[in-house]
Amino acid sequence: MSLHQLVYLSQSTRKMSKEYLLALLKQAKANNAAIDVTGSLFYNGGWFMQVLEGPEATLAALYAKITKDPRHHDTRLLYKEPAAYRTFVRWSMNMTNLEDRQADKYEQLVEVIEAAKAGRKINAISPAVTLLNLFKS
Ligand SMILES: Cc1cc2nc3c(=O)[nH]c(=O)nc-3n(C[C@H](O)[C@H](O)[C@H](O)COP(=O)(O)O)c2cc1C
């Protein structure tokens, strides 16, 4: 089935502690590995931005499940397109917590989430594509 990438933005219902984030990550990793999904999750203390990669129908079902999760709300689908390659090929799910200011690509990722929240582009490129471009090898 054809490979797709999906990117969404959502607001965390309450502030997620490190322990909660790790529990979420563990759950996502285990589930995604079993359904051939890869991706990355970014959290800035109030908002999530997540990239999901996998077969189109699998992503549709997973996204439907994720949007119902009470740990977040105001889910906004930013991007859903076919892809030739996976950007996060090594990760059933990776996580970057931007509360850690030392995080790799910290400045760019903060800007990507702020632009997504505001619905604006970054140098004429959508935040979702900017995010994917940041991690393209
Ligand atoms: C921000 C966020 C990202 C999530 N990402 C994933 C994910 O990548 N894969 C996944 O299976 N579940 C993810 N979840 C959890 C799902 O919403 C759901 O709780 C979980 O898949 C249920 O797992 P279970 O069917 O094993 O009980 C995420 C939840 C949140 C709040």
Total of domains: 1
- Quaternary arrangement of the chains shown? single chain
Q: Report the average pLDDT across residues.
A: 97
If you compute it from the alpha carbons, what radius of gyration comes out, rounded to the nearest whole angstrom? 14 Å
What are the secondary-structure elements, in order, as H or E? EHEEHEEHH
Work out the number of β strands: 5
The biggest sheet amounts to: 5 strands, mixed
Major sheet: arrangement of strands: 4-1-3-2-5
Any idea what the shape is?
Answer: globular
What is the first-to-last residue Cα distance? 23 Å
List unreliable stretches of 5+ residues: none
Instruction: Say which molecules are bound, naming each kind only once.
Output: flavin mononucleotide
Report helical residue fraction: 25-40%
Number of helices: 4
Structural class, please?
A: alpha+beta
CATH-derived topology = Alpha-Beta Plaits
Task: Output the CATH class name.
Answer: Alpha Beta
Percent strand = 25-35%
What is the CATH architecture descriptor? 2-Layer Sandwich
What's this model, at a glance?
The chain is α+β, with helices and mostly antiparallel strands and 137 residues long. The protein has a five-stranded mixed sheet, sandwiched between helices. Helix 3 packs antiparallel against helix 4.
Could you characterize the architecture of this molecule?
The chain is α+β, with helices and mostly antiparallel strands and 137 residues long. The protein has one domain (3-135): Alpha-Beta Plaits (2-Layer Sandwich), CATH 3.30.70. Helix content is 37%, strand content 29%. It has helices spanning 18-34, 56-67, 106-118, 127-135, and strands spanning 3-12, 38-43, 47-55, 72-82, 94-97. The protein has a five-stranded mixed beta sheet with strand order 4-1-3-2-5, sandwiched between helices. A hairpin with a 3-residue loop joins strand 2 (38-43) and strand 3. It is globular and about 35 Å long. The mean pLDDT is 97. The site of flavin mononucleotide (FMN) has 15 residues, from helix 1, strand 3 and helix 2.
